[in-house]
What we know:
The chain has two helices and 29 strands. By secondary structure, it is mainly β. The relative contact order is 0.07.
Amino acid sequence: MPSALLVLVVLAVSPLVHGRHVRNTESNGISVLGEFNHEAFPRFAEPIPNVTVTVGRDALLACVVDNLRAFKVAWVRVDTQTILSIHHNVITQNPRISLSYNDHRSWFLHIRNVQEADRGWYMCQVNTDPMRSRQGYLQVVVPPSIVDRETSSDMVVLESTNVSLTCKATGYPEPYVMWRREDGEDIRYNGENVNVVDGEILFITKVSRLHMAVYLCIASNGVPPSISKRVQLKVQFPPMLSIPNQLEGAYIGQDVTLECRTEAFPTSINYWTTERGDMIISGSDKYEAVSMDNGYKKYMMLKIRRVNKSDFGSYKCVAKNSLGETDGVIKLEEIPAPTTLRTTTQFPSSPTKKKGKTRAGDRFGRGGANNRVDSSSDFDDAGLPEYDYDGEYTLPSNGPPPIQEPPGAFSGAASSEKFNWCIGIVFAMTWIFSTSLR
């Protein structure tokens, strides 16, 4: 109230008009002031522009007055009726507010480190009678901010339960909040696959391991920068196991690999055992066990080197965590070792004779008229032509067929040979019969 009285006093003591009055005296003796000379009054050269500024920055409000002459300019906060400045003097006790002017025409109100409380209407007044004024609005915008105490943190839940993620954000204008996965994958939400879920709350019914991910709560309101918070959702479930091949075959001396795939959270302890229940220790010359993780999934591999008879049988891959355990059996059986055979096929290109002399006209070394063999060595292998079976075979060309002997060739020699053979048999039978009679 004292401030308002002060501005009224100041305006009252200031000159009202610098111009010519017209006095008319009516018949009743009352004098009436005529119209003022409007050209002598100050006037605003332009409206006060509205200003938008981000909280924490500086604001500048400008008031341009033409023909001010001896009149004075004041800045007033409209909503609180607070006098900020009168002419060259700053009245308010707010240290963030200052005043500047230029050529007795432009008057600037400076507000440093703008706060949300500075948002509102500001008036530039000139102490004419009646008072002249213009107003401008100072808009203070605030970038979004996430309220940690009201926002979900990392969560661990059991599979098939319901889960709710909450994100609270402030700012001016009011922020828009959405949820999405950090890895860019779709979210299974209300029976659909969606990339973004709008709103402060992400509610998932019957959460599964497929929902296990890092989620981003993103708040934005058009005032940079947008802001986000990471919320990691972990879903617990007992181990599950799958085996690509439950039956493997190997031959003696071969290296063989057995494979298992498991899923579990918390992360499971995985190992291999023999059919006797002995745990297989990796790192020996015989066994090499490898395990590779990919999130809640794990790949197990057992390599058995130089398989022997004692290695055939069943092997078990086992996965355990705090919620349970599971195992799977792979059977290793013996298969025949592959054999490599070198098959060579040869065909004769031409018949060859055994070494030794033969009579002319007999290609098998037999005589002509007397059917006599020249020597015992000449009749090896029944005097048949010998072929080289150890040499490589070259496919013969399609030349003329070999010359065949005409029917009846050497027929006389063949008949004599049969006759001699029969006589020998009869002679032998007679000698055996006579011996038995004695």
